[in-house]
Amino acid sequence: MLCEQARDHLSAYLDRELASELSVAVRAHLESCADCRALLADLRATAGLLGALPVHRAPADLADDVQREIERCTILPAAETAHDTEPQERTLALRRVRLWPRALAVAASVLLVVGIGVLALLGPAGRRGRLDVASGPETVPALRFSEEGVEVAKGGAGGGVGSATALAKKEAVGDYKADDRRDKRAVQSKEGGWRGEQADLAKVPERARAGPSDLEHVAKAPGPESLAEDADRETRLRAAEKPSGDELAAVLEVQRVMNQAANGEVPIDELKQVATVDNLRRTGYNNTLVIETDAPAEANGDLTRLFLANDWQPVAPPPAKGDVYAGARVERRFEAKDKGGAAAPNGYYFLAHSDGEYVWVVVADRDYITRFSSQLAADERLRVGNESGRQFQAIRTLQDEVRQYNLSQSQVVQGGGGTAGREVRYAGKAAAPVATLAGRAPGSAGTPRGDAGTPGPVGCRGSTAGDSTGRTAAPPVPAEAARPEVISKLGTAQVTVGKAYGPTTGQVAVQPSQAAEPAPAAPEPTAVHGGKAETPAATQAIPTLERPAPAKEPAGPAPAPAGGEQKAQEEQTASRAKAVTQAPAAPASRALAEREGRETNGRFSYVVRLPANQDLLVIRVQRPGVSADVTAKEAAEDAAKPTVESGH
Amino acid sequence: MTLRFGTSGGPADSELVSQVVGGDGAAFGPIVERYQDRLYNTVYRMVGSAEDARDLVQEVFVKAYENLASFKGTSSLYTWLFRIAVNASLSHRRKRKWVRMAGPAADPGDGEPSSGWADPADGDPAREMLAAETSTAVQQALSQLDDEHRTVVVLRDIQHCDYREIADILGVPTGTVKSRLHRARLLLRDKLQPLLKA
Fold first, then answer.
1. What is the ipTM, given to two decimal places?
2. Any idea where the domains of chain B sit in the sequence?
3. pLDDT tens across A559-610, in order?
4. Rounded to 5, what percent of chain A is helix, strand, coil?
5. What is the pTM of this model?
6. Which of A35, A367, A440, B62 could form a disulfide with A444 if both were Cys (CB 3.0 to 4.6 A apart)?
7. Which of A53, A260, A267 comes nearest B138 by C-beta?
8. Who among A256, A263, A330 is closest to B101 (CB)?
9. B120-198: which CATH topology?
10. What CATH code would you report for B1-100?
11. B96 touches A: beta carbon within 8 Å
12. Half-sphere exposure of B54 (CA within 13 A, CB side)
């Protein structure tokens, strides 16, 4: 047998699906052919990888959903199709149709009687809703509501009026396939199962008493937007907003793709197509930041360190030696895991890459997004590239805000966000981070603008004296600060970054004296300040919008981090540490959030509709040319539509 | 015939089908419970989304219920259900781009967490990380295959169907199954070279 022939049979040989004679021939060939043996080994390994994939079991409530769907689909459609089907085929449908009309009739009557009674008790408001329902074409939704009331009552338990309302709205537009799992679950029977159930009509009056507003809602429900509104009803009500159908559909689509992308389920091309500034802006996400840089890998590295410093541990292992961690071509996905810190976010983030453009997508608790955004804004090293874009203006605004209110990264991240459950230490003379803290020495960074030229913080590295933004000047990065530092350790996976990075927590910043010591295990969310343990709560910000008083700076030498005596530096650091804990905590996230809302008004429309207090942040890292196009596009759009809605 | 868990015990499929067709709708419950996990895992690997898999499996059972009277028993119920599932999955993939507006983030309670979401606290973090990354890479490679190759490799290497069963499900000759599977594995081998070398 020739190699070419044998290879065609290798998979079947592997699966023992060859006839015996052919199998013998292939085996004989394999004994004499190393190449084919190697190929067989590869095929075996490939099949092994597939076979080793974890088995996903069906959701526990899938069977209930199936039952419910079957029941729902066979109520009306069965009657319609019964005439068109053969007797044998329509047996099931007919059986169900026989069961339902009686229950429908009884329950509808009960609903009608109780509804009238309730409306009579509730007065004009209730009467208005009822009249809307009962008059003209709107009687259809009222009837639907009654039917759904039976559906819920039949389940025998649970289900709010909102659920019935949502279902009624679905029926009103004739779409039984609407995907609203919340509502499905809400009407799920607790006792039904597959054994059949009896209508619990006692439940019906309770539902009918729910109030006129829901009846009114039903009356006004019909419309193509209703389905989408159902899907987002909870969040929309929370936001007290009512977006248009198109807008909401776009938002939901973005959410869908983002959610799928987070699971690695969306091709990067599709993700890129959706996660564009234009699309996100159109859909209302203002949390899109664009970082323009000629060195996207470096910017990604900074972003990665920012994530890590916020206790966002990568689920994926750290890159192999020699890899560019954040500049990897493959998508990498990370998950926020609570390592013991209360501030650990609930969400995920991931990096996608395509055609030289990186898209970071962050979905997390809203508070975390706010904090992270402000940190990002305050990070000097990410202020690269063309700053003419609107997004950069927004970042600059936030950066200015940070300075204006004497905010600092140390205060932006609150209790436990930095050190909880993991090692955090500096291996070098970490004078650099200290300078970014609120309790800085007079004239150092963080004071209001205008003191350019004052010996500034390493944390402002990258900026130059007297630049156009009025930023404070910064000295070059001290050589010591460029030494590697360990900022994260997760089990045996240790992440080491090659450059000193301005910490995002006060806890991290004030322990240079321990730098040379091996990092102790830190199972508790404990911060270390000058060698003393301190609970994260001690550094939590106090939510106030007042500009804090000038830093209560203890007497001490001016910053002289590079090449200075170690003792003096430690003293200085210790004094700063003290100042940090004593300084009035700045209104970090709250102030920024409010400020952001004002500043972005008119620049970005925004609608945040992620549920469960989650928010979405999209960070695009791209080369300047791309952003220029976007900016031009934005300008053109603005010319055509001068007013951009904001806040809705 | 490949041995499958869950098929032993309880009434036979044919008996349940007869009961359902005869008017005992409750008999459909055991059918759902018997096959939902395998269908779900298969569909999940086909479409790569837990939420979509859930919806599709639900759709499969509804279709099966509606058409159970037309099930003649010439093939096994398992094969019949899988045929519906594969067709639904392929159809879904073709139109999935704008097929449906999804709601909020995937409910972690839906099915088992995907491999990429392993909890480092459950065991050795490094190992779980590696497993998660491997799983993600394999799923991505799988998703890059075209429909016919992905289908056959899922049915064989994940569901462990034999060639005849696959042929029945897909309605193609076993020779076609054999060639498609071989081709699919070669494609996957190329895509997964880094993992294979590791």
1. 0.82
2. 1-100, 120-198
3. 333 444 455 555 544 443 333 333 333 333 322 222 223 322 222 222 222 3
4. 50, 10, 40
5. 0.36
6. A440
7. A53
8. A256
9. Arc Repressor Mutant, subunit A (1.10.10)
10. 1.10.1740.10
11. no
12. 22
